[in-house]
Amino acid sequence: MATVSLEVNGRAVTAEVDPRTLLVDLLRKQLRLTGTHVGCDTSQCGACVVHVDGRSVKSCTMLAVQAEGARVTTIEGLAPDGRLHPVQAAFRECHGLQCGYCTPGMIMTAVALLQEHPEPTEAQVREHLEGNICRCTGYQNIVRAILSAAQELRALPKAS
Amino acid sequence: MYEFEYVRPQTVATAVEQGGAGQYLAGGMTLLPTLKLRLAQPGRLVDLNALPELQGIRVDGNVVRIGAMTRHADVARSAELRRAAPVLAELAGGIGDPHVRNRGTIGGSVANNDPAADYPAAVLGLGATVVTSAREIAGDDFFTGMFSTALAAGELIRRIDFPVPKRAAYAKFPNPASRYAMAGVLVAETAGGIRVAVTGAGPCVFRVPEFEAALTRRFAPEALDGLEIPSDGLNQDLHGSPEYRAALVTVMAQRAVAHAAARG
Ligand SMILES: Cc1cc2nc3c(=O)[nH]c(=O)nc-3n(C[C@H](O)[C@H](O)[C@H](O)COP(=O)(O)OP(=O)(O)OC[C@H]3O[C@@H](n4cnc5c(N)ncnc54)[C@H](O)[C@@H]3O)c2cc1C
Ligand code: FES
Ligand code: FES
């Protein structure tokens, strides 16, 4: 067993893990943060996307021990006080989900995109979703939700 | 996954010491899926992620040096590279998807030598040098076959040195599902002449002397009209036949030439 210490959604966490434990399993099974989903477990679908030190990663393809000292944000961390993040609100508003299985990964991916490119074109949004698979929506409303959230976020006063 | 010991060395010297009896873990984008499928059973994983000296991009006059642990995303967004050797930024930006690019590294990609990986085309096509813990290996000698390289057991890639080309471009026809190359062609005008390297089409990246000769006579897409590589030995899978891939190679080469020529 190994000990790993990291920050998850702003909270310091220390856990005992087998070195084989995937980051997603630490989050879901040990920390009970089940908002992050496992769709494929083969690095294809993006349902497991979380942010590690501000970058989107597939948490099924990273060992928990590799997150030592890292800052991890999951979908739960987007709405700490129960108020939806603008990207979450836009997904609801634009009907950007049906079964919802892909949604946490889609939203974490969208948040990372908008942090880097606050004004993406539709083509950039679609390209950025290359690693996220949705079996329900046909992507149309997901793209609409992200473009609408982008507008919403640009209108917000800058957080310092 | 089978059980393994996990170590995260803090110096390159320790990593190389520990690597002899283990396997290096870089971005994990290839290695972790392989371990999940139990296709490999390393006793020890030597994580290279705590070694800042393996990371980063440096432009030194006519050479671009990229540390082995530099992520695809950092190569893709490097302003320095976009000026000195835009072909590299462009190639890295087309690998997989944003999450793969945030973890995957140039060293891992080159060491792995997947027949459909993009970076091998850059190493061979630009005539790069692979700098390891033990020696310097010329790009022309590095890739020895499907998933195999000139690296000895435990040999660590430290960085890759790319001579800045006069002009170069990369064009790939991505597999629509995986984004790996069905055929990817890098065309470069270098100090040593024109080089054309093809990935995705065969079991291992290769050069095309006929295309190089034609482009030396005239650096224009039309110079390749009517030329096609033999389809013998090219990859055959559910995505395409060897004949289809041979045709793709000419088309991708012409696109790369057009793009490189437009760069002046
Ligand atoms: C969904 C998906 C899509 C992808 N699409 C593409 C694509 O379109 N094009 C493409 O080119 N690739 C693609 N890849 C592969 C990706 O680029 C990987 O990042 C790359 O092949 C391996 O790099 P890594 O850093 O993840 O290495 P790892 O998986 O950590 O390691 C790979 C191998 O290299 C060895 N190794 C790693 N670093 C070193 C070093 N410094 N010295 C010696 N040996 C080392 C390891 O021991 C291991 O054997 C894709 C991967 C995924 C999961
Ligand atoms: S569960 Fe991680 S990519 Fe599908
Ligand atoms: S909403 Fe069902 S998979 Fe996307």
The neighbouring-strand order within the major sheet of chain B is 4-5-10-6-7
Which structural class matches the secondary elements of chain B? alpha+beta
Report how far apart the termini of chain B are.
50 Å
Query: Biggest interface and its residues per chain?
Result: A-B, 26 and 24 residues
Please, how many helices of chain A? 5
What is the CATH superfamily label of the largest domain in chain A? Answer: Beta-grasp domain
Describe this structure in words.
The complex is a heterodimer of chains A (160) and B (264). Helices cover 33% and strands 16% of the residues of chain A. Chain A has 160 residues and is an alpha+beta fold. Chain A folds into 2 domains: 77 residues, Roll (Ubiquitin-like (UB roll)), CATH 3.10.20; 70 residues, [2Fe-2S]-binding domain (DNA polymerase, domain 1, Orthogonal Bundle), CATH 1.10.150. A 5-stranded mixed β-sheet of chain A has the order 2-1-5-3-4, with helices on both faces. In chain A, helix 2 crosses helix 5. The longest helix of chain B is centred in the last third of the chain and has 21 residues. Chain B has 264 residues and is an alpha+beta fold. Chain B has a domain of 98 residues: CO dehydrogenase flavoprotein, C-terminal domain (Enolase-like, domain 1). In chain B, strand 11 and strand 12 form a beta hairpin. In chain B, strands 4-5-10-6-7 form a 5-stranded antiparallel β-sheet. Chain B has a 4-stranded antiparallel β-sheet with strand order 11-12-13-14, with helices on both faces. Classes of the chains: A alpha+beta (160), B alpha+beta (264). The site of one FE2/S2 (inorganic) cluster has 12 residues of chain A, from loops. The site of flavin-adenine dinucleotide (FAD) has 30 residues of chain B, from strand 2 and helix 7.
